[in-house]
User: What shape does this take?
Amino acid sequence: MTVICITNQKGGVGKTTTAAALAQGLSEHNKRVLLVDWDSQASLTVSLGVNPDNLSLTCYDVLTSIIKNNGRISIRDVTLKTGNPNIDLVPANIELSQAQLDLVNVLTRELVLKEMLQPVRKEYDYILVDCLPSLGLLNVNALSAADSVLIPLQSDFLAMKGLALLLPTIIRVQERINPSLEILGILFTMTNTRTLHSREVIEVTKRAFGDRIKVFDTTIPVSVRFKEAPAAGMTILTYAPKSDGAEAYRLVTEEVLHEKS
Amino acid sequence: MTVICITNQKGGVGKTTTAAALAQGLSEHNKRVLLVDWDSQASLTVSLGVNPDNLSLTCYDVLTSIIKNNGRISIRDVTLKTGNPNIDLVPANIELSQAQLDLVNVLTRELVLKEMLQPVRKEYDYILVDCLPSLGLLNVNALSAADSVLIPLQSDFLAMKGLALLLPTIIRVQERINPSLEILGILFTMTNTRTLHSREVIEVTKRAFGDRIKVFDTTIPVSVRFKEAPAAGMTILTYAPKSDGAEAYRLVTEEVLHEKS
Ligand SMILES: Nc1ncnc2c1ncn2[C@@H]1O[C@H](COP(=O)(O)OP(=O)(O)OP(=O)(O)O)[C@@H](O)[C@H]1O
Ligand SMILES: Nc1ncnc2c1ncn2[C@@H]1O[C@H](COP(=O)(O)OP(=O)(O)OP(=O)(O)O)[C@@H](O)[C@H]1O
Ligand SMILES: [Mg+2]
Ligand SMILES: [Mg+2]
Assistant: This one.
């Protein structure tokens, strides 16, 4: 069983898209996957066709129950079935934006998500956590609960610059809270190899970080199909199964399976 | 004098790009502009060619000085000149990520940025605040300090969905803290009118929100030049002055000037 945290504080790099697509890729290899939406924007919840406004219970209720130590709501109470029998979803809604403040004065405030996932770890092969674009307490919770970190990175200059901020946070969590946390790798998303900029950013990133961190061999091409898929409540693998984008995420899935075997 | 907050909790929609380009557009109309980087990722600081790691003082130091009420560091102490005589920059670095927690127990914690800008309001025609992708205390500070809100919106489904979360936060700030806050408008960025998806999202957004909120007539086209410009430490107006992207931001500037006159 592996918990993979999908994070990058730079916004719009493809965290949610990667979480949904990787879950589907793993399910095609008959793996049981739990997707956790750990972002109050609830993009992952929305991407799977669920309306966050209609939910009476979300991961925020489980978090609150743990903070109050009253055991009233467990992760099983909020987990939803999806259209795919191998994928379950722990949804989020805007209430999760309260969590950052709620956690401030809580004992071992970095370990609440880890505690939340504890009861169901054995029921899944993979648990994927889709993070919000920040470096705050919620992200530290995700890094503390994870076995591995996958870093989607848009192949552009500003996103690359953001990497220099993310890595120290990961290292701090490894040193102080979660020594077994490993970096699964950097996944280049929205790449357009016809542009020099995209190729240069990939080159420079590999040179700067490639000796310490794995860079996935597969890169995800830019395609409007990715924008259309969440509007249809599907991942790219269902929405456009024969597209380059879907194929690329299947290859990423194989690289992940290979690393974790 | 107008303070414009450029915000959207959805990541990667073009907040930083819009802040830098609009500042330059306004400077071409001989307006004095102060750019405030209110994001610990410091994308705006980086975009203007400044290395956040080399800064001994940033907006975080002014914030801390206000919280401690010791008046030691004022906004003038951290303001940098840029290559453009009409544009100054209040830079940020990763330390700003501490601010969310520092502010929790501060009296009138929503008004710290407003207090920070107070001493220099008269010296500029426009103050533009580039916000981080969140709905937390730092964003509430920016909305509380602002006269107007400009909402960059990538023309895609997930970004559109995020709008329904942002608007209630703006309304809450208008009702409880800053009644004179107005919404300047929604600016569509990274549009690709050749795709149906982009056109549909613009259409649906106008229908859903257009009666209450202005949608800028100008939309910003998707172009790799936008990714290259920050790598060169320039805005699109300097990096590719005759490009469609630069032209589009000049038109946006005129719409902003027209609204505020
Ligand atoms: N390879 C791709 N090509 C084109 N568009 C993409 C690609 N991957 C994702 N997108 C689109 O880009 C937008 C941003 O992606 P996504 O929401 O997954 O990023 P994120 O990192 O989760 O954003 P946030 O920081 O807001 O959580 C979405 O509209 C998505 O559909
Ligand atoms: N019109 C455009 N066409 C293509 N790329 C663009 C456009 N506008 C911005 N970009 C690029 O897209 C990326 C995201 O833009 P930007 O960083 O301005 O968004 P943001 O909303 O500030 O992100 P964050 O949520 O991380 O603060 C950047 O690399 C930028 O150069
Ligand atoms: Mg996301
Ligand atoms: Mg930004």
Residues 201 and 255 of chain A are 22 Å apart (CA to CA). DSSP finds twelve helices and seven strands in chain A. The beta strands of chain A are 2-6, 33-38, 80-81, 87-90, 126-131, 148-154, 182-189. Residues B 15-16, 39, 43, 130 surround magnesium ion (ligand 4) (CB under 6 Å).
